[in-house]
Design a protein that fits this description.
This protein has one helix spanning 2-11; strands at residues 27-33, 39-45, 50-55, 58-66, 69-72, 75-84, 92-104, 110-120. The chain is mainly beta and 121 residues long.
Length: 121
């Protein structure tokens, strides 16, 4: 299961999202593949209402089309995330459980578990 979780994004041509800078006054959520070695997969910018993925060095910004659903670049991404506040974590929350699903026209859908953290600056 661990290897499969790492290979699924690769099958879609996605790569690890490089480190992102948090813009003051904004809240974002970073999502990673739940595996032995977490791989940073996506960033949700709550202010801009976009989801960012990486394909090589190209950043793919996808607009939110409805709550938890982002579309663009030939795919639709659906997120089901449950956040939990933790003592000692200020201005943020952990993704207690989460699933990300990719629907690409003409291909099978792929879904897998993600973890993450929501942070505000």
């Amino acid at each position: 299961m661990i290897l499969l979780s790492i290979l699924m994004p690769v099958a879609l041509g996605l790569t690890e999202l490089p480190q992102q800078k948090l813009v003051p006054g904004r809240c974002v959520a970073f999502l990673w593949v739940r595996s032995e070695t977490p791989v940073r997969l996506a960033m949700i910018d709550e202010s801009a209402q976009t989801l960012r993925l990486a394909r090589g060095k190209q950043m793919l910004d996808m607009p939110r089309v409805s709550p938890g659903i982002y579309a663009g670049h030939g795919m639709t991404v659906t997120l089901n995330l449950e956040f939990a506040e933790r003592q000692g974590l200020t201005s943020g929350a952990l993704v207690e459980s989460g699933v990300i699903r990719f629907d690409v026209a003409g291909q099978d859908s792929m879904a897998f578990p993600v973890g993450g953290i929501r942070a505000c600056q």
